[in-house]
Design a protein that fits this description.
331 residues; Adenosine deaminase; globular; eight-stranded parallel β-sheet; nucleotide metabolism; 15 helices; 8 strands; alpha/beta; 15% strand; single chain
């Protein structure tokens, strides 16, 4: 099975975790931004989380440098374009990019301009490469709820124009879902789709509450449903897709090593698993590498891959026209 040649779909990829180190340096010089080094290797080392990373919190520290340079219309548009360019070159045919607009206001950019800049970068790449993309508006779980309402209301006018969903991300505390019921309910009433980071750090109950309280249609990671029967059962019964990110899960210590990842057990039991990178730079990976790690460890064959591809296709937030294209790539 030639993984490089296979069409791919990615549903869980953070924009600020997927910036080229060379771009960090170039934007810093262009926009007179102070960064720790102008050496590509040193910037690379600062951005990539080691496989020996001790926790999710340590992993998240790698985002401060890229966020620091992603504070202008130019930088946001460029970084988005380059992410899709990199993805297209490894035969990713559809990608859902997620980012938190409120993290990009340090130099006074309005939320509208932040979202529009990313959408323009998406359009630039779609015009040049055989790839389609949509945008998920993320919110840090540590952010005041008032800011979430602001972005949901502003982002509403971009629904159907590249924006498709909302997400909660960042550090995971037990019982976080109850604090976000109102904004997620509002988002759903507007037509946003819902995906939530949950069950990444040993709290399977968070997955259950994300579905029951927040209306999650997909779950980011969800590894720890393995330790919570109610969460496991609701994911299986409702056919809720899990956005699995193997390398990242090792780095954040959701699992100790790839061989202990529950993805294959989930898959064999009928849970709708999908394959993703999470953060291409922070995890020093791409879709081909992620697929290779899983196929080698669990002897996944072409028919297995095809089923996982269709899990992603069926769970994606694209319109029917794009879904038809994605079916044709695999058929």
């Amino acid at each position: 099975m030639n993984l490089s040649n296979l069409p791919k779909i990615e549903l869980h990829c953070h924009l600020d975790g997927s910036v080229r180190p060379e771009t960090i340096i170039d934007i810093a010089r262009k926009e007179n931004i102070d960064i720790p080094s102008y050496d590509v290797k040193e910037i690379n080392d600062l951005m990539i989380a080691p496989i020996e990373c001790t926790s999710l919190d340590e992993y998240l520290k790698r985002f401060s440098l890229p966020i620091n340079i992603m504070q202008s219309e130019y930088s946001l548009r460029r970084v988005t374009y380059e992410l899709l360019e990199d993805a297209a070159k490894e035969n990713v045919k559809y990608m859902e990019i997620r980012f938190a607009p409120l993290l990009h206001r340090n130099k006074g950019l309005e939320v509208e301009k932040i979202i529009e800049s990313v959408l323009m970068g998406m359009k630039d790449a779609e015009d040049k490469y055989d790839i389609n993309a949509n945008l998920i508006l993320s919110f840090m779980k540590t952010m005041p709820v008032e800011g979430i309402f602001e972005v949901i209301n502003i982002g509403r006018k971009y629904l159907g124009k590249g924006v498709v969903a909302v997400d909660l991300c960042g550090p995971e505390e037990a019982g976080f879902a109850k604090f976000f019921v109102e904004p997620m309910s509002l988002a759903k009433s507007y037509g946003y789709r819902i995906t939530i980071h949950a069950g990444e750090t040993g709290i399977g109950e968070n997955v259950l509450e994300s579905v029951e309280l927040l209306g999650a249609e997909r779950i980011g990671h969800g590894v720890y449903i393995k330790d919570c029967k109610k969460a496991y059962d609701i994911i299986k019964e409702k056919n809720i897709a899990l956005e699995i990110c193997p390398t990242s899960n090792v780095q954040t210590k959701a699992v100790k090593k790839i061989s202990e990842h529950p993805i294959y057990d989930f898959y064999k039991d009928g849970i709708k698993v999908t394959m993703n990178t999470d953060n291409r730079t922070v995890s020093s990976t791409n879709m081909t590498n992620e697929l290779s790690a899983i196929t080698n460890e669990f002897n996944i064959d072409y028919e297995d891959y095809k089923e996982i591809y269709y899990n992603s296709l069926n769970a994606c937030f694209a319109d029917e026209e794009i879904k038809d294209k994605l079916r044709k790539y695999m058929d």
